[in-house]
Amino acid sequence: MTQHKTLNIQEISTEEHQRFLAEQPRASFLQNPYWPQTKPAWRSQSLGWLDNDRLVATSLVLYRPIPVPGLRGRSLAYMAEGPVFDPETIALDSLVNPLVPYMRSQGAFLIRMGLPFNLRRWEAETIRRTLSANEHDMIPDLHPAESNPTAWSLEDSLVRLGWKKPEMTEEFGPGQAQFQARIPLPELTAEQRADRESPEFIQAVDDVLARMDSTSRRQTRKSMRSDLQISVGDISDIDQWQTLYEETAERDDFTGRPQTYFESMFNALNASDIAQCKVLFAHYEDQLLASAIYVQQQDTGWYVYGASTRAESKRYAPRALQLEQVKLSLEAGARWYDLGGVSPTLKKEHELAGLTRFKTTMGADVIETMGEWDYPINKVLSQAFNRYLARRG
């Protein structure tokens, strides 16, 4: 039965936060209390909601000061993929009602919250076929394979409580993309997961390969026969990742992150009891062809960053690393392998349509999350901040 009473909200320790997340079936690494070590410009808090003395919900909150002179102490309060709670037993009102005054007391002028629940899911094959046909404009025009009434009810509650719904856009904005590409993974027992040579593990990998389109499947199988050496690095190897990543950024014309960010990410998540971060390499002989940053927590493995060279392209080293990350996710007992955000556009000519096509050819379904909702505590400052973001973008 859903609780409708107002809960007590307070700051909790890293240990309390981590213990709570360890008991949840799904919790993004963006909610891990060690994650703020990668965000030195942000102040962070672990918040807990208590029913008497029982912890029933948590959220990592990052506070970003507004970049306007004379407004010291005022900040954006950002909760990516949080709060984490069970919506079947805890009413959203009981979380939000104490949250707003608490954030006001912390100097927040705007709360941005991305509840970690999915609205709808479309199968990879459906998206691939529709993109090829070029007969629809947006993914929500299609009939979904699955819809979540609980998440829709949470949307209704947020509207009633005065929160602003995110606008659906074909472009990627700040924060987390509302539409995500995720490969569902077969469920294995602990014994089956522990042995990559077990018939069940091999079958699980084959099931993932079967989700791919014929080109991706052929290239992935070829990568398995391409004499590549797949290895897992440690913190001292991140300089090799960085060199290849910077080469990729220059070639593909995007602004990359500094090496210190990846070192912080590696150290932070591996310090946590519930997460792991790995830097993966694919070599041919002595030449590094591809690298990837992989994260796993609770029921999900994430392909977070990738880099590659154009050399020896017919060995399909990036495909080999994708398959390795699938195997790592299966070993960890994950139910999803997450390839990151996609645009909801189905327009063939749109610059982001190729990204959706690639991820769905890998077998990823498209998930519509609830997205990131805003609550303007100070409307004037919130409008100014959003104008600042729009100019910066």
TrEMBL record:
Pfam annotation, one family: FemAB
Record GO terms (molecular function): aminoacyltransferase activity
Keywords, comma-separated and alphabetical: Acyltransferase, Cell shape, Cell wall biogenesis/degradation, Peptidoglycan synthesis, Transferase
Domain of life: Bacteria
One BP term from GO: regulation of cell shape
TM spans (from-to): none
Gene3D superfamilies assigned: 3.40.630.30
InterPro entries attached to this UniProt entry: Acyl_CoA_acyltransferase, FEMABX, PG_Glycine_Bridge_Synth
UniProt family annotation: Belongs to the FemABX family.
Protein name (Swiss-Prot/TrEMBL): Lipid II:glycine glycyltransferase (Peptidoglycan interpeptide bridge formation enzyme)
